[in-house]
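Encode chain A's predicted structure.
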Amino acid sequence: MQTTYQNQASGLAISNTGIVWLKLAVLYLMLGVGLGIAMGASQNFTLRPVHAHVNLLGWTTLALAGLIYSVFPQAGHSKLAKVHFWMMNLAMPVMMVALSIILLTGNQAVVPFLAIAEFVAAGAIIAFAANLFLNLKPQQ
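Encoded structure for chain A:
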């Protein structure tokens, strides 16, 4: 059973969709590093959960999705990839801002926004999982 799939013409299948994901992931990496530096410099770690979410959901998850969508363009060009993209990239900023407001001010009025954004992000992950199970198939 073959475990590596390559485009016969170029040796590697690359999806433009994956490139967009990787570029967004790097933006989240820069944000996460900047936030980490700011917290370390000030010795104020109130935004630790935001830092963790930016790095894990923003940098790591988006980068892995980008790599997967680059190597498996049939998944990267699917409708589920578009659903995944928009749900994740709409949920992440709302989630990070709402969580920051709660942590910095204690204002609980934004909790519903945080909860909705978390469910949207979870839906994005479900769309990603469904996409992979439906669209990652051995090449014939």
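The CA atoms of residues 35 and 41 lie 10 Å apart.
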